[in-house]
């Protein structure tokens, strides 16, 4: 049985080198720890190949640029780091976490021009993100927190600071026996869950919120392309909360979540229908193709 995430055997890539797992540490005066100057990726490796690996490495660099810092490694170097970690730990099926942040240095105020940008890659074996929801359908709460306007936060960055409201929403959801929460956006439209995008089905057509103030997930984009290939109509649009009542099926997409059916959001129920199962199965095949 593995210990806490800071207390395991294995190797982590830190600033260009593989180090012992328990020695992959940072100083308490790390800028990111105080001011959320940190970006990250969540990826899954299937049978030795990281799905959409380069897209994730590129997004990590783009997220940093959106937060006004540059990662001192190219996409190719990030790719090599990820595979070095998998090889060092002997894993072919694993979750991969790459992250970059402003470290400790001469600056300890809000500005951090002089502190070094640091990067790490860790990986671990991680099964189903929503437990048995893949079969039964996940139960979602409705969060009180709203996804912010792109004028308020860099919403296309996968940045640590954007997860503050996600953690609080997920804790509130879990206290009610739910496995996640649906978040609305600053305008009141249906947005996404705390770590996954949302899809709905009505009359054989698919509807998904327009990703104009939250992460346009790599899985979301993959699933939209897959649905279109199957000849299905996909509407990317603003969705009002009142519309939840009329949707028949619902699923979540994300690297960790993969395609997870949703059975309930607040008082609204959804069937784990044929299309949802088909999309989940097609995605499973695709990531291992
Ligand atoms: C807030 C949020 N939205 C959406 C997603 C889905 O993104 P992706 O499919 O790129 O993993 C994630 C997961 O990374 C997430 O954390």
From TrEMBL:
| Role, per record | Acts on leucine, isoleucine and valine.
Give the Enzyme Commission number. 2.6.1.42
Q: Give the protein family.
A: Belongs to the class-IV pyridoxal-phosphate-dependent aminotransferase family.
Residue spans making up a coiled coil are: none
Q: Which InterPro entries match?
A: Aminotrans_IV, Aminotrans_IV_CS, Aminotransferase-like, B_amino_transI, BCAT-like_C, BCAT-like_N, Class-IV_PLP-Dep_Aminotrnsfr
Q: What is this protein called?
A: Branched-chain-amino-acid aminotransferase
What Pfam families does the record tag this protein with? Aminotran_4
Known NCBIfam families for this protein? ilvE_I, PRK06606.1, PRK07544.1
Question: Is Calcium found in the keyword set?
Answer: no
Listed under GO biological process in this entry are: isoleucine biosynthetic process; L-leucine biosynthetic process; L-valine biosynthetic process
GO molecular function ontology, one term from the record: L-leucine-2-oxoglutarate transaminase activity
This enzyme catalyses: L-valine + 2-oxoglutarate = 3-methyl-2-oxobutanoate + L-glutamate; L-isoleucine + 2-oxoglutarate = (S)-3-methyl-2-oxopentanoate + L-glutamate; L-leucine + 2-oxoglutarate = 4-methyl-2-oxopentanoate + L-glutamate
Q: Which UniProt keywords apply?
A: Amino-acid biosynthesis, Aminotransferase, Branched-chain amino acid biosynthesis, Pyridoxal phosphate, Transferase
Q: So which cofactors does this thing need?
A: pyridoxal 5'-phosphate
Pathway where this protein functions: Amino-acid biosynthesis; L-isoleucine biosynthesis; L-isoleucine from 2-oxobutanoate: step 4/4; Amino-acid biosynthesis; L-leucine biosynthesis; L-leucine from 3-methyl-2-oxobutanoate: step 4/4; Amino-acid biosynthesis; L-valine biosynthesis; L-valine from pyruvate: step 4/4
Is Amino-acid biosynthesis among this UniProt entry's keywords? yes
């Amino acid at each position: 049985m593995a210990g806490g995430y800071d207390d395991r055997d294995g190797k982590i890539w830190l600033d260009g080198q593989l180090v012992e797992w328990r020695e992959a540490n940072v100083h308490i005066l790390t800028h990111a720890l105080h001011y959320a100057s940190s970006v990250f990726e969540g990826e899954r490796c299937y049978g030795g190949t990281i799905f959409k690996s380069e897209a994730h490495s590129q997004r990590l660099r783009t997220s940093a640029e959106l937060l006004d810092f540059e990662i001192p490694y190219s996409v190719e170097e990030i790719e090599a780091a990820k595979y070095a970690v998998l090889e060092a730990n002997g894993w072919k099926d694993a979750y991969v976490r790459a992250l970059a942040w402003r470290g400790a240095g001469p600056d300890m105020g809000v500005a951090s021009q002089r502190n070094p940008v640091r990067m790490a890659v860790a990986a671990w074996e991680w099964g189903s993100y929503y437990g048995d929801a893949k079969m039964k359908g996940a139960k979602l709460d409705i969060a009180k927190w709203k996804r912010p306007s792109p004028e308020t936060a860099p919403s296309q960055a996968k940045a640590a600071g954007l997860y503050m409201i996600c953690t609080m929403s997920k804790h509130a959801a879990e206290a009610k026996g739910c496995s996640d929460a649906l978040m609305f956006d600053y305008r009141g439209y249906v947005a996404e869950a705390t770590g996954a995008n949302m899809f709905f089905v009505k009359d054989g057509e698919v509807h998904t919120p327009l990703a104009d103030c939250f992460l346009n997930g790599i899985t979301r984009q993959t699933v939209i392309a897959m649905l279109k290939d199957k000849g299905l109509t996909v509407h990317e649009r603003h969705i009002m909360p009142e519309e939840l009542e009329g949707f028949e099926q619902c699923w979540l997409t994300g690297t960790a979540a993969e395609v997870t059916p949703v059975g309930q959001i607040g008082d609204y129920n959804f069937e784990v229908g044929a299309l949802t199962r088909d999309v989940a199965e097609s995605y499973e095949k695709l990531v291992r193709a």
